[in-house]
Design a protein that fits this description.
Structural class: alpha+beta
Order of helices and strands: EHHEEEHEHEEHHEEEHEHE
CATH topology of the largest domain: Aminopeptidase
Strand content: 25-35%
CATH class of the largest domain: Alpha Beta
Shape: elongated
Strand order of the largest sheet: 1-2-3-4-5-12-6-11-10-9-8-7
Largest sheet: 12 strands, mixed
Low-confidence stretches: none
Radius of gyration: 19 Å
Number of helices: 8
CATH architecture of the largest domain: 3-Layer(aba) Sandwich
Number of strands: 12
Helix content: 25-40%
Length: 263
């Protein structure tokens, strides 16, 4: 039985999704940030006859994310009906094994389909004590423009504004570590969607003239240490094999393929 969830269901939802805090970073993060009964967010649950959750579906704005502990328990056809009847579908994303069960039942044209690797780092894994560089600084929220300028120079489709980054930093769901040279920010690593138990690493970049000098790796190590001190599991997306090898050397292991389908 599928029904819309309310604040009364919070503990059951978090227990269900909390078994995999990295994989459910966006679902848990949105619940922590907005609650379950916010205009921008809707949650549904599919229950068995004993009242236990089989799967859940989150809508944040036009993005839908499904989750099930057992992919075989996810009813793709029923969830596709819920998504289409909402009239708000812009993107369906999540673990590929779950998203692929829903996509065939959605009767809308697909604009784009993308996949990337989703990786996480075990909290108990030791961290190399020898940082390549020690002059890694933490960005203040009012300095958000600096890191956005760097990202825009390296990423062709980066959309976050300085105002949004600053707001997220002030809310405590994002942070940035960076390296400066000649009073210029040349490398940085940020987090996004931080929850009590996990954080997404994003925006790993270095100015072209400063590449291959260990700057981004130093920022990553600083970020990992900070998250580990707060018992937050770091996770990230990547679709570049070269970047994947760097992340693997730092202890990140692939979870599963993440799929994003735009309608």
């Amino acid at each position: 039985m599928i029904r819309q969830l309310t604040e009364k269901d919070r503990n059951q939802i978090l227990a269900f999704a909390g078994d995999r805090p990295a994989e459910n970073l966006f679902i848990i993060g949105d619940i922590e940030a907005f609650g379950i009964e916010d205009d921008a967010l809707t949650l549904w649950g599919d229950f068995d006859s004993q009242g236990d959750l089989l799967s859940i579906l989150l809508r944040y704005m036009g993005n839908f994310i499904p989750y099930a502990q057992d992919p075989d328990a996810l009813d793709g056809q029923s969830w596709a009906k819920v998504i289409q009847e909402s009239g708000q579908l812009g993107r369906l994303s999540g673990l590929q094994s779950l998203v692929e069960k829903i996509v065939p039942h959605i009767q809308l044209p697909i604009v784009k389909k993308q996949t990337c690797q989703y990786a996480k780092r075990d909290l108990q894994l030791p961290i190399d004590n020898q940082e390549k560089l020690t002059d890694v600084k933490m960005l203040f929220p009012e300095e958000a423009e600096k890191v956005i300028q760097l990202r825009n120079s390296r990423f062709t489709s980066y959309a976050e504004s300085p105002e949004t980054l600053q707001k997220n930093m002030n809310k405590g769901i994002s942070r940035t570590y960076y390296i400066e040279r000649n009073n210029e920010l040349v490398s940085s690593v940020s987090t996004a969607a931080e929850t009590r138990r996990a954080a997404m690493i994003v925006g790993v970049c270095t100015k072209k003239d400063y590449e291959h000098q260990g700057y981004a790796t130093s920022c990553l190590i600083k970020t990992i240490r900070a998250l580990r001190a707060e018992h937050k599991q770091p996770c990230l997306f990547y679709d570049n094999p070269k970047a994947g090898r760097i992340y693997e050397r730092l202890g990140f292991l692939p979870i599963e393929t993440w799929m994003m389908v735009t309608y």
